[in-house]
Amino acid sequence: MEDCIFCKIIKREVPSSIVYEDGEIIAFRDVNPMAPVHILVIPKKHISSLVDLEKDDELLIGKIYTVINKIAKQEGIDEKGFRVIVNCGEDGGQEVKHLHFHILGGKKLGVKICG
Ligand code: AMP
Ligand code: ZN
To answer: Which CATH number applies to 5-105?
Structure first.
């Protein structure tokens, strides 16, 4: 995906602060953080959004949650807690069309839309 900013981060064509990387997944700090800890976890495979997931991606998504668990511990937010958000499509407010999981923590988070 030539014009995808996150694909460019994966290829090191755009700088970022990477906190985790393996063969399939990369995580980096959000450039416009909404909390003291704001990290984006993404698959290296370009998947545009949650609605573009395929059956074959099930294992990958499970791995992403294991990486989120690891990063939460690495960042020291595992005990006090954090939030994971996936924005999808126009109504969901998705700006970057490469599937990403926001990890937000490091403070008491406001505005719960659900729950
Ligand atoms: P979303 O609204 O869910 O699509 O979130 C996209 C997120 O990507 C926003 O929080 C942006 O601040 C973040 N973002 C956009 N460009 C970059 C970049 N080059 N490096 C890190 N984060 C970025
Ligand atoms: Zn991409």
So the answer is: 3.30.428.10
